[in-house]
Predict the structure.
Amino acid sequence: MADLSTTYLGLPLANPLVMAASSATARVENLQLAERFGAGAVVLRSLFEEQILAEQAQLEDTLSQGSEAHVEAQDYFPPVVHADAASYLRMVEQARRTVSMPLIGSINAVRSGSWTRYAKQLSECGVDAIELNVYSVAADPATSGQVIEEQLFDLVSSVLDQVSVPVAVKLSPYYTSVVNVVHELDKRGVSGVVLFNRFLQPDIDLHHETLSTVMPLSTPQEMRLPLRFTALLSGRIEADIAISTGVHTGEDMLRGLLAGATVTQVAAAVIKNGLHHVGSMLRDCEAWMDDRGYSMVDDIRGMLSQAAVQDPHAFERAQYVSMLSGGSHSSPLNARVS
Ligand SMILES: Cc1cc2nc3c(=O)[nH]c(=O)nc-3n(C[C@H](O)[C@H](O)[C@H](O)COP(=O)(O)O)c2cc1C
């Protein structure tokens, strides 16, 4: 049977399935279940700074309403508590005492001082690593992309200076050059990058003529975006790469590994299907590897990264027209065009 064990952020993991930060990772009981079903590691739901806690709680409420179609999902949304950092940290301590798989703390703060303070507090509570959830929408027309990136680098450097545990940065895909930003973070010594966070996207409800904040869970198709950037970066940075967004099945995990991901993170699929889904994803992943005769995760990791494939331009193509003129005979569109 294939050996799925791996290393992420310098931590030994039983397998490359990491529970992404979400409401499913906000309760100790869920973490215990996730461990029982075989998760390799877990990222705790973010510690959100007080100023934005209320807004986030509202988002969580809305998200939980959006998932009511899935009976099992309801359990995973804890009652919204306007908790201060202290009660969050108590939960982390309890989690640390209860589960033995690696625990990754997650922070979303506002001021640079808070990022470092929370990072120190979390590492004192026994987390094995920290994920910085850099979750904000660049909405100020007076702030340039360069300034936003410099703020990111300063914030990451200040956290790296203050904590001894490994630090990963969970990024948005909305940088002009994601690849450049990741390289800059890599130079500064982050242990991992998480590609990508998934923002709440408000919609417009025509029936009520109001804004709607119900956020549907991701679909597997959304994995194409992190998959491309993982493939572009794999083998070219020291930091580990975690794919987040659209990883729903064991096959998705395999796609991520083939593109060069160190691990794949899962939120929506578990919220939708229940925590036992972790077990079936791992079994499917293992079965494929056994079937193909691969014995270790390292045997397949990065096999289809940009650095490894015969057509490296495939991951850089942006226009449909170049895809069509590239001679893909499997496309019915191509048949029409030629
Ligand atoms: C209900 C819910 C709560 C989430 N809470 C957090 C969070 O606290 N911190 C964070 O970094 N990401 C959070 N996320 C984002 C997920 O970690 C993940 O990046 C995103 O859902 C995309 O992955 P998926 O396709 O597996 O859902 C949350 C997602 C959901 C659905």
Residues 20-23, 45-46, 63, 106, 133, 170, 197-198, 217-218, 244-247, 266-268, 271 surround flavin mononucleotide (CB under 6 Å). The first strand starts at residue 6 and ends at 8. The CA atoms of residues 258 and 300 lie 6 Å apart.
